[in-house]
Specification:
This protein is α+β, with helices and mostly antiparallel strands and 489 residues long. It has 17 helices and 10 strands. The strands form 3 sheets. Strands 1-4-3-2-5-6 form a 6-stranded antiparallel beta barrel.
């Protein structure tokens, strides 16, 4: 069956449409005829559930089966709606500058039939598709080409090449099937090295190095520190992948469930979605999300031991990312609402509160009128300090010191300001209440110890680093909250 391969330009590198087109033309021009390519279904493709991707050397996607042919080409795949089955095809000619014609045999060549699988968690809480990242499509593709094949002596270099491609991708995932396949591939390499004595010593050395490398990968899956690093990295990559403004999962979620961009969504709608999605997460077995007291480091192994499919892993991790995103926006909404209420209260009692003249004078002495962010946005210093003060405990000297430190970091405060003058300025703008000079001095002493270091209970306390990203532990968490409040609307 002949078909066309299109959308090649969109898979090519390039800063703009013209560069992608030029690179696509060069790729097609230099492509040998015939060439073997691999077909893989994408049932979660956001544009078409019938989409079939086309992969070439190094297992990079080079295009898609033309939409005019997808229904016919679907016939060469098994009836099950699995995306893991790989089918070989052959490029037989070129059409114009950036289109290819290929041929696929009937009956099909199914390299790795999908295993029957019973879902272990509830169906996805989303009615919209959540596509896999391209790296994970590559994992499925390379595994399908590597595991079922009976490699001969003359295939040793190809076995090594496939295994190296696998190693480059597998460190990015904790999916149960990938973990199992990693062990299978390791055994395959060991068996090949032992049973094929005719291979050269250099080839044998390459295989032994690969075995050692894959053994380390297997160990990482069970080592707590590495396993959690893989999980956090995976979440970060998914978040970046979902954040595409044009057609990313987050945008499609907002359109379908919030009916507006997230920053414009009603607080009640956000709360309702958080409740719906956390209720779904609470049903995940083994209590992964049932208790907010579960330590973060325990999530990865618990999820790993559920033996989930890649789709189920994505459902859980994607839902977790959406919930975190919604909670961040809810925090911002509530912060603004509380700040407005706080400001109203301050204004309502301002005439009754005693504020010494030196505290009013300290405002201009301490605070700049405005400060400028790296993206050239100008902020009013006083307003941002008031907002940031709301996220800390103003009765705690060290947190007031951190507020002052970040005020200096973003240059909302004049250089060389003393702690006691900063306290007076906070009183002047109504953030702190004035009591007496002794209380001011005690607070300033505590702030100085936090900012500049000193002795505390016989121990030397190091000074607070000048940048909040250098802070550690709970200081880092508080610093991030202050910085975020100081630098956003």
């Amino acid at each position: 069956m002949n078909f066309e391969i299109t959308a090649i330009r969109y898979q090519m590198p390039g800063k703009n449409f013209e560069e992608k087109t030029q690179n696509a033309q060069e790729f097609v021009a230099h492509l040998p005829i015939p060439s073997t390519v691999y077909l893989k279904r994408e049932p979660d493709n956001i544009y078409s559930p019938n989409a079939i991707a086309v992969y070439y050397q190094n297992y990079n996607k080079i295009g898609y089966v033309s939409e005019n042919y997808t229904k016919e080409i679907q016939r060469v795949f098994p009836q099950e709606q699995s995306s893991t089955t790989i089918v070989k095809a052959k490029v037989i000619s070129k059409v114009g500058y950036i289109t290819l014609t290929a041929d696929v045999d009937i009956p099909k060549e199914c390299l790795l039939p999908p295993e029957p699988y019973k879902r272990r968690i509830d169906p996805s809480p989303f009615d919209i598709s959540m596509p896999f990242m391209e790296e994970e499509n590559k994992i499925e593709l390379v595994t399908s080409l590597l595991l079922p094949r009976d490699f001969k002596d003359e295939d040793a270099e190809e076995l090594i090449r496939l295994s190296e491609h696998y190693c480059a991708q597998i460190s990015l995932t904790l999916c149960d099937v990938d973990c199992k396949n990693t062990s299978r591939i390791l055994n395959k390499l060991k068996d090949f090295t032992s049973n094929h004595t005719a291979i050269s010593s250099s080839t044998k050395k390459k295989l032994e190095n690969l075995c050692h490398k894959i053994q380390n990968l297997v160990a990482n899956i069970h080592r707590e520190e590495d396993r959690n690093k893989i999980y956090e990295t995976h979440l970060y990559r998914m978040k970046k992948f979902f954040s595409n403004e044009k057609d990313g999962f987050f945008k499609r979620y907002d359109d379908n469930y919030l009916k507006s961009p997230l920053n414009l969504a009603e607080t009640d709608v956000i709360k309702s979605e958080i409740n719906r999605l956390t209720a779904w997460l609470d049903k995940v077995p083994r209590g992964i999300f049932h208790s907010h007291n579960l330590r973060k480091k325990d999530i990865a192994p618990q999820m790993r031991y559920l033996h989930l499919s890649r789709r189920e892993m994505y459902d859980i991790m994607g839902t977790e990312l959406v919930v975190l995103r919604l909670k961040e926006q809810l925090y911002q909404n509530e912060l603004i609402e509380n700040l407005e209420s706080y400001t109203e209260q301050q204004n309502a009692v301002s005439d009754e509160v005693f504020i010494p003249d030196d505290c009013r004078d300290a405002i201009n002495k301490v605070m700049k009128t405005t400060f400028t962010l790296p993206n050239k946005v100008v902020k009013i210093s006083r307003n941002q300090i008031v907002k940031a003060a709301y996220v800390i405990d103003l009765t705690t000297n060290v947190q007031v010191a951190m507020l002052m430190a970040i005020g200096m970091e973003v240059k909302a405060i004049r250089p060389g300001v003393k702690c006691i003058d900063f306290i007076r300025a906070l009183i002047g703008i109504g953030v702190l209440k004035y009591s007496d000079e002794k209380a001011l001095k005690n607070m300033a002493d505590g702030m100085n110890k936090k900012l500049h270091g000193g002795k505390q209970k016989g121990k030397t306390v190091p000074p607070l680093p000048p940048k909040h990203l250098q802070w550690k532990g709970i200081d880092r968490n508080i610093g991030e909250d202050i910085f975020k409040a100081m630098t956003t609307e």
